[in-house]
Amino acid sequence: MITPEWVRLMAAYNAEMNRRIYAAADRLTPAQRTEDRGAFFGSVHATLSHLLWGDRSWMYRFDSWEKPPGGIRESVDLHPDWAAMQALRVQTDAAIEAWAARVDPAWLAGSLTWYSGSQGRDVTRPNALLVTHMFNHQTHHRGQVHALLTAFGQKTGDTDLPFVLPLD
Description:
CATH superfamily: dinb family like domain
Structural class: mainly alpha
Oligomer: single chain
CATH topology: Four Helix Bundle (Hemerythrin (Met), subunit A)
Number of domains: 1
Shape: globular
Distance between the termini: 24 Å
CATH class: Mainly Alpha
Radius of gyration: 16 Å
Number of strands: 2
Strand order of the largest sheet: 1-2
Helix content: 55-70%
Largest sheet: 2 strands, antiparallel
Order of helices and strands: HHHHHHEEHH
């Protein structure tokens, strides 16, 4: 399904897009960042908090990171301090890239069993599918934030994968 090279590409894309999204969000006022704008998680800040929680939850399962507290509902309130959340995002992205550098075909071919709070039961799925989901989840919620930022008049630059990273 996917290769270690694809995982590394997506980790690099994730980190670069987070830099762009956070830079644009940093140009907003605190009131704008936290204003409920009708997105699934309400605000720019809440959505980015959820996304950070989601990434750290998957990395807890994939690479034995510390489990983030709470569940989906609590994820929006985990990082009330903007500067601290920004710093944790940078640290998280660097650690995801370091993990991606270690991913090998054998691990991708394996599977993972975990307790899913959203499903209320133990679930087993192929690692390759779960890694794909993690990166898709990032892109999905960053897209929501991008729409909110655009409505505030902020720009992030190109978001299209073929044009974000230097592949030459």
